[in-house]
User: Fold this.
Amino acid sequence: MFQKSNAHKFVQKSLFFYLSILLILGCQARDPEEPSEDQVSWIPPSDTPLSLFENLRRVVERHESSYYYLLGFSDTFVYIPSEYDQDQFEETYGTVWSKNQEEHFSSNFFNTLQDQDQVFLTFDRTDIDIEDVVDDLAETAILYRHYELSVPPERTGFVDDRIQGVARLDLFIGNEGYWVIDRWEDTKITDDIPDWGELRNAFK
Assistant:
């Protein structure tokens, strides 16, 4: 009887010991998993400035956070509106449009968009004769791009869903190691279609 009792206690203690070990191992923190591609808008920038366009396209089309959008702009960013916008919106563009204004704009713009809104953005070199200038040694670039942004007009207040223009973009590699826009100079294509300067004014 005594031997059976001791054996029973030994089994209980052993079982308790192993369960404790399993519980401790199970409670240990796991290494954080990298988010899946569907969870991340901002793709890892490559060593070419062209990746910046893909990043901007993705974050604008998904319109989930202005944080990712602002990663594409330097702290010294300056926006130069078209002459048309400068004349039409003196109150907005009477002073320098800096990173601070871009932050206000992007926050207001993204917060206005709804999850179900379909937004599309393209950058290309359609009808652009000026060559890009990329200086790998100085880690700077000047790129010319025709852009077209499609946003539901009920969000912007514009008659058309199209927003388009031609942008001269001055880029450099920032301290974080990826390309950022330091200067955006806009050219309006037609008076009938708003450009990014009008969009910025609408959500300033």
